[in-house]
Each structure stands twice: as structure tokens, then as C-alpha cells.
From TrEMBL:
One of its GO terms (cellular component) is cytoplasm. This is Arrestin C-terminal-like domain-containing protein. Residues 164-290 form the Arrestin C-terminal-like domain. Belongs to the arrestin family. It comes from Scleropages formosus (Asian bonytongue). GO terms for biological process: nervous system development; protein transport. SMART domains: Arrestin_C (SM01017).
Length: 393
């Protein structure tokens, strides 16, 4: 009697391109049998791991292989057990994830996540169906640490002969360090060529994959995007204000893994015959664009890339506001005790023989009176005469 299953399949309910931390993966197991069969257990397992492996030498086929594996997620749910139930109904199961590295497949390692269903039957091998699902690690490029600008500078003396050395300098800057795939990086740079040869400016984005296994490391570096400028003649200067470099569709940076790291850098360089000059600007490729985080929307967000980000450009400070007047800071109640009454003002005007405010206007902006030297020091003769007239007691 043929005891073979007609169908055993695992279907994810949401046809999504990727899942992120905090989200749930939902699905169902489809089981179709030709007749009544004996089932011991049916379970669903979810897991993920990162694997690193490389061979020390390609020339020696039996060379030692360095490898390491980290299993950072594992979960299981038993949906059917022969001790408690004898049939299986379609169910809804949720698996919650902790912060995990993003799915990745590199030169010497990979990060994978999967869900599998296992059907156990007596006197039969286990039947397994497995489905992989991608996971992304959301990186918000509007984080304060990714909004920092860089303005590196580098220079080099180029030896054209035994007795002659010539200077070539490079200064570059970017407005922030966090970008997403599809965005444009505005590069402001100044190239000074004081040599007697032509030099070519260039900017590249490099992806660096670092793999760790048993205390050893392996690095793989590749260029993912580049832009080239106009050759600079001898004793000339060229500026980029700015020159734009578009980021292609690439994997986001992986910085939270223990054995696999994916990092990016923007290298601005000068191609010099028999030499070279470069500055390295580290960048982070994220998944949440800066427009969705409140940093800028509409025309303001698109206009920030066309601004002049040269470090030599200084913005004038905004003019300061005038301080408030005394009348604006002192309330009327505070002035009432010091305000003169109408009867008192009339009395003073009769004594001065006119309006009191005319005297006030006449004395406005006048220097203070000079100190009088008369009467400050008493006369010694008068003092002695007064002392003589005083009776002695």
C-alpha cells in the first residue's frame, strides 16, 4: 500500500519582500493525504544563523579550512501530537524576532532565516518542507550620529626627478554620513595640482566585507559606484561644488553581527602617474530615508543637495534683536509709587516760574556739573577762631 503523501507545503500568508525586527511571520501548513494515515507529530520550526567559511590556500586542495557558525535564533511550535489529537486544522502562528542582522550573502559567508515544517510518522523518515524569508535591519539615516559632516584634507609631494618634488593636495567634504540606496551623495572637493603632469579626480563608493572565524579575519573589498572628473592640467586647480554620485541598489550596512560586517566608504582620490592621493570618508547605508524622519520634505529636502557645502563658505550670523525698552519691561503698577501727583507738579511749576518739563528738556544730554573746590576744605584760620571761642570745660 502506497503510504506516500500527496502534498506537504508551507505557505507564508503575506507575500512580502522582507521582514524587519519586531514584525511577525505568519503562514500555514498544507497537508494532503491519499487515505487515513498514522501521524506521530507535525511541527513548525523557525531559525536563523550566520555562517563563515574560507580556505587558507587555493593551491593546496587539502589546506585547512577556517569556518564558524553562529545560531542566533531558533523557535519551534508543535502543532500536532498523536497523544492528544489525531487530525490537523489550518492554524495561525506568530513568531516574534529580537534584533537580528539582515539577510546577506557575501564572498565568504552568509546570513539566512527560514521556516520549516516537519512531519513525523512511525516507521517512515521525517518529511520536511522549508521556506526562506529575508530579514532587514532598519537603519534610520536621520540619527544624530549619521548627520555629522566630514572635511578631510590630504596632500602629497610627488617626485618627478631626483632634485624636484611637486605638491598635489586634495580637500573633500560631505554634508552627512547616512544615505539610502537610490539617493545622491553631493561631494564638495578642491583639487590643487602644482605638479608638471595631468591628474584625474575621481570618487568611488567601496563595500568592505569582513568575516571573522576563530580569531582570524578575511576581508573582501569591491567598488559599487564611481564618478570621474575632468583631468586637471599642470599648475591648475579644480573644484566640485558639488559633484553628485548616485548610490545604486546595494545591501544596507551590517554593523550588529558578531562574525560578519558590511561597511561602506566614500573615497575621493587623485589619479597621479605612478602614484595616487586619496581621502577616505566613512558612510552608512540605511533603510529609512531622511525625508520620512522629519529632516526635510518636498523642495526643501531636495534642495539640500544642491547647496554649496564647501568648508571655505561661511554663513553670516543672523542679526541680533534689539533689547526691550524700559517702559516695556516695567509694568504700570510698578511705576505708580514713583509717579508724581498733579498737585505736586503744579506746586513745582509755581516755584520754578514755568513748566517743569521745559527744564527737564533743557538739561537732557548735558554733562554732569563739575565738582566745586570752594568749601570742600574748611579754613584753618576759621577753625582755630571757632575753637578759641569755644569754652574750655
Amino acid at each position: 500500500m502506497n503510504d506516500k503523501m500527496k502534498m506537504l507545503d508551507l505557505v507564508l500568508e503575506e507575500q512580502r519582500t522582507a521582514f524587519s525586527n519586531g514584525e511577525s511571520v505568519c503562514g500555514r501548513v498544507l497537508l494532503q493525504v491519499p487515505h487515513v494515515i498514522d501521524v506521530r507529530a507535525l511541527g513548525v520550526f523557525a531559525g536563523g544563523c550566520e555562517l563563515v567559511s574560507w580556505q587558507r590556500s587555493r593551491l593546496l586542495p587539502l589546506a585547512k579550512q577556517e569556518s564558524d557558525e553562529v545560531q542566533f535564533y531558533s523557535d519551534a511550535h508543535e502543532m500536532l501530537n498523536s497523544l492528544y489529537m489525531h487530525f490537523y486544522n489550518v492554524g495561525f502562528y506568530v513568531f516574534f524576532f529580537r534584533p537580528l542582522p539582515a539577510s546577506f550573502s557575501g564572498k565568504y559567508g552568509s546570513v539566512h532565516y527560514w521556516v520549516k515544517a516537519v512531519l513525523q510518522r512511525p516507521l517512515s523518515p521525517d518529511q520536511v518542507v522549508c521556506k526562506e524569508f529575508p530579514v532587514i535591519n532598519n537603519i534610520d539615516v536621520s540619527a544624530p550620529a549619521l548627520l555629522v559632516s566630514f572635511h578631510p584634507h590630504s596632500e602629497k609631494w610627488v617626485r618627478r626627478s631626483i632634485f624636484c618634488e611637486q605638491l598635489v593636495s586634495l580637500r573633500a567634504s560631505i554634508n552627512r554620513t547616512g544615505y539610502c540606496s537610490g539617493e545622491t551623495v553631493p561631494i564638495c572637493a578642491k583639487f590643487e595640482n602644482y605638479s608638471s603632469c595631468f591628474v584625474v579626480p575621481k570618487a568611488c563608493i567601496y563595500q568592505t566585507q569582513t568575516f571573522l572565524a576563530k580569531g582570524k579575519s578575511k576581508t573582501y573589498k569591491q567598488e559599487v559606484a564611481s564618478v570621474r572628473g575632468i583631468p586637471i592640467p599642470p599648475f591648475k586647480t579644480q573644484r566640485w561644488n558639488p559633484n553628485e554620485l548616485k548610490i545604486p541598489s546595494i545591501t544596507a550596512s551590517i554593523l550588529n553581527s558578531t562574525i560578519i560586517r558590511v561597511e561602506y566608504s566614500l573615497v575621493t582620490l587623485l589619479e597621479i602617474p605612478d602614484s595616487g592621493l586619496a581621502v577616505d570618508l566613512p558612510i552608512v547605508i540605511g533603510t529609512i530615508p531622511i525625508q520620512q524622519s522629519g529632516y526635510g520634505t518636498g523642495s526643501n529636502a531636495s534642495g539640500q543637495y544642491s547647496a554649496d557645502l564647501s568648508p571655505l563658505t561661511l554663513a553670516l550670523p543672523q542679526p541680533l534683536k534689539a533689547p526691550p525698552t524700559y517702559e516695556g519691561t516695567v509694568s504700570g503698577r510698578e511705576c505708580e509709587p514713583h509717579a508724581a501727583s498733579a498737585s505736586h507738579l503744579e506746586k513745582l511749576e509755581r516755584e520754578f516760574g514755568g513748566q517743569l518739563f521745559s527744564y527737564i528738556e533743557g538739561m537732557r544730554f548735558q554733562p554732569p556739573p563739575r565738582f566745586s573746590e570752594v568749601g570742600l576744605v574748611p579754613d584753618k584760620g576759621a577753625d582755630s577762631k571757632d575753637e578759641a571761642q569755644q569754652p574750655v570745660t
